[in-house]
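Q: Got a minute? One more chain.
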Amino acid sequence: MKPVLRAFAVLPILFVAACSVTDTVVEKITPYKIDISQGNIVTQEMVAKLKPGMTKSQVRFIMGTPLITDVFHARRWDYVYRNQKAGKLVEERRLALFFEQEALVRVEGDVVAASPVAEEKKEVASPAPGAAMEAPAKTAEQSTQDAAPAGE
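A: Always. Here it is, folded:
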């Protein structure tokens, strides 16, 4: 009889211990969460192309269709981009374009236009196909070495 009582005494202890183990296992096993990109991807280069006075069709050609067009605010277009990885927000960008009489007046948001210097460097680094490459200029030291006789 005593072994049966011991078994009944040990059994609840085992159940309690098993519950604590399954809690940690359940916390570690989670469902897969996919990466989600929503909205319009807005780059600095796109914003740099926007100029005051552009028509709505020109802006739509550069930026794409706005994510939000409000009936009550027809003069405002909103571009929103959100990127989530594994359920956590990684990146969020917002850009608002304002029009008056079908012409772009101002741009507001957290996307800054690319600097002209960066654009010039990009153009120099990657010339158009078929364009002739210029040879780098020689320094004064290199030209004196070329002019010196080979016997010296």
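A: The longest helix spans residues 2-28.
Q: Perfect, thanks.
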